[in-house]
Amino acid sequence: MTTSTINLLTDGNFDGVSLAPGAPGYNQGSPDGAFNGLVPFGWTGTTGNVGTFAPTAATSPGFVGSQVAYLNPNGAISQSFATPAVGAAGFDQYVISLDVGIRLQGAPTSGSLTITAKVGATVVGSTSVSVSSLTDGAATPLSFTTEDLYRLALPGSPSR
User: Fold this and answer.
1) 84 and 159, same structural domain?
2) What is the mean pLDDT of the chain?
3) Closest to 54 in 3D by CA, of 30, 22, 79, 78
4) Domain annotation covers residue 1
5) Burial of 55 by CB count in 10 Å (0-12 exposed, 13-18 middle, 19+ buried)?
6) Residue 112: inside a domain
7) Is the model's pTM score more than 0.90?
8) For residue range 92-118, what is the model confidence (pLDDT) as tens digits?
């Protein structure tokens, strides 16, 4: 079986937003790190509840050296993208993987985080994690494989 890895997301690593002093929305939350309250580039989201953040070791040692998207309670981000049409049963599945985490200070003690992949209104895969099971300040990998889009008659359809 042949597999390939392609990042289909626009700014999937959240580096498309400048967190330099003077950049739009820039805030220096020293010693926590630089952040803004703007929806990350290429994404749609709940304005005011999401943004881009460059954490320090004082906040999230697992993400030092990267820019991340942050979501406050009830925050959400999404992105639509076109999936390449492979056109054979069993070959239109996608692996969704990302690292999630919570801050060292003020971490939530209840609630859940859900990652969902949809094609139109059809949910083709999802995973959830209880925030109380996450290690404060660490990166926790989450991953799931979508249903076969070909078998669902959805190959090549825009996904989000």
Assistant:
1) yes
2) 83
3) 30
4) no
5) buried
6) yes
7) no
8) 778 888 899 988 886 677 888 888 888
Angstrom distance (rounded) from CA 136 to CA 60: 8
Question: In terms of domains, do 134 and 105 share one?
Answer: yes
Cis peptide before 31 (omega within 30 of 0): yes
Structural domain ending residue among the three candidates 36, 52, 77: 77
DSSP class per residue in 109-139: SS-EEEEEEEETTEEEEEEEEEGGGSPBT--
Query: What is d(CA 77, CA 134) in angstroms, rounded to the nearest whole number?
Result: 20
Task: Tell whether 155 and 85 lie within a shared domain.
Answer: yes
Give CA separation, 150 vs 89, 93, 119, 156, in Å: 5, 8, 12, 9
**pLDDT band, very low/low/confident/very high, at 67 (cuts 50, 70, 90):** very high
DSSP assignment, residue 61? G
Indicate the residue among 77, 100, 124 that finishes a domain: 77
Q: Which is more confidently placed, 137 or 81?
A: 137
Indicate whether 5 belongs to any domain. no
Range of the domain at 158: 80-160
Q: What ranges make up the beta strands (E) of 27-153?
A: 27-28, 33-36, 44-45, 50-55, 68-71, 77-78, 81-82, 95-100, 112-119, 122-130, 140-145
